Amino acid sequence: MNPALLKKTLRLLAELTVLLALFLIGGQLAAWLGWPIPGGVMGLALLLALFATGLLKPATLQLAAGWLMAEMLLFFIPALMSLLDYGSLLRSEGWRILLVIALSTLLVMVVTAVTVEMVCRWRLRHEP
Amino acid sequence: MSLEPMPLFWLALTLGAYLGSRWLYRRSGRYLLSPLILVPALLLAVAVPLHTAYTEYARNTHWLMGVLGPVTVAFAVPIWQQRALLARHWPALLVGMLAGSVASIGSSWALAHLLALDDAVSLSLLPRSITTPFAMPVAQDLGGVPELTAVFVMFTGVLGAMFGGILLRWLPLRTPLARGALFGVGAHGAGVSRAQEVGREEGSVAGLVMVLTGLLNLLAAPLLVMLV
Q1: What is the ipTM of this complex?
Q2: CA-nearest residue of chain A to B183?
Q3: CA-closest candidate to residue B206, choices B181, B174, B173
Q4: Do A72 and A101 share a domain, yes or no?
Q5: Distance of CA B84 to CAs A13, B156, B169, B204, B210, Å?
Q6: How much is the pLDDT for B4?
Q7: What DSSP character marks residue B137?
Q8: Of B100, B160, B178, which has the smallest distance from its Cβ to A120's Cβ?
């Protein structure tokens, strides 16, 4: 392995360890406080607090954060394979499910875009 | 069929299919070859003839889903980097995310009942427009099946990325904020990729609202539990 790649890999692993640690600490914290919030979300809040206080810079974790988000698909592929246990469900309800998803997605997109556009135009008219 | 002699078969196939499909997609740019579509299709094409059960597939691959926890933590980076955008436009984005989420949950619920879908399916459909790391825990809270939700989230992404481009031609949207929010709230990760193709600002907006909409839904889940 060439030195540059080795260095980048070690860097990625170190950054991933920090994110994993925040996830685990977040889980512990949520359990300790008795809050019904997943460890990942508590970890996210902790990380934002670290950024805000300047103890950590986003650039420090950029490599691992970018990598995790870019490869996120890989991490939920196993869940998609649950389809293996739902063959009969898909045969009986598959088209209806797809129809719900399609219509609802269209509606969400139109509602969101039109709402944001209207608020933006309203603010443009009411600002000096 | 059990593949006892090859305990890591499914893990190896999953990783291999993912890397191969990612390479193919980058080279060809064809949407049908994107890992979102090709990998599950390929895995199912192997697993269905072998009569593999989900538990058997998941035995050595379920830990991959555990990485979604650290992914959630990593979402702090785009939120922090886009804080200037958020500070300037939070009223429009917040109103848009709330309206979009209400439209998503309300219409999924109404349509599922209208079409007489199974209870477990209906509940699993409710969080389908937010990104998977948030959608799965919300499904759990609501009493749905998180794995089914992941499947519905995927279909939402595939369809949403397709619809988004068409809607942009129909809707008279003048602001990059509205164009970005359309993709981020409506089609999560797949939408963010499409929004990045539309424009730089659209991509940033989509990425930011994708994460914030997920957070908003997750924090509102206990409230939703009381309603359903």
Answers
A1: 0.91
A2: A109
A3: B181
A4: no
A5: 30, 29, 29, 11, 17
A6: 55
A7: H
A8: B178
CA A56 – CA A47 distance, rounded (Å): 8
Answer whether A80 sits within 8 Å of B154, measured CB to CB: yes
Mean pLDDT of chain B, nearest integer: 92
- Verify that B83 and B176 share a domain, yes or no: yes
Residue of B60, B77, B118 for testing the chain A interface, max A β-carbons within 10 Å: B77
> Distance between CA atoms of A106 and B170, rounded to whole angstroms?
12
Q: Which amino acid is at B177?
A: L
Q: Which residue type is seen at B216?
A: L
Quote the domain boundaries for residue B24. Answer: 9-66
Residue B61, amino acid: T
- The answer to whether B136 faces chain A, any CB pair under 8 Å, is yes
Residues in A closer than 8 angstroms to B92, CB to CB, are: 116, 119-120, 123
* pLDDT interval class at B30 (50, 70, 90): confident
Whether B129 and B151 share a structural domain: yes
* The model's pTM: 0.91
Q: Hey, what are B197's tokens?
A: 């193709």
Alpha-helix residue ranges (DSSP H) falling in chain A: 3-33, 39-53, 58-70, 72-80, 87-126
Same domain, A5 and A68: yes
Single-letter amino acid code for the residue at A7: K
Flag whether pLDDT at B215 surpasses 60: yes
**What is the rounded CA–CA span in Å between residue A14 and residue A56?**
14
**B23: its two tokens:** 């390479």
Q: For residue B3, give both structure tokens.
A: 């593949």
Question: What's the rounded Cα separation, in Å, for the pair B40 and B188?
Answer: 18
**What's the DSSP call for residue A127?**
-
**Parent domain of A41:** 1-76
Mean pLDDT of A41-53: 96
Total number of domains constituting chain A: 2
- Of B187 and B5, the structure prediction assigns the larger pLDDT to B187
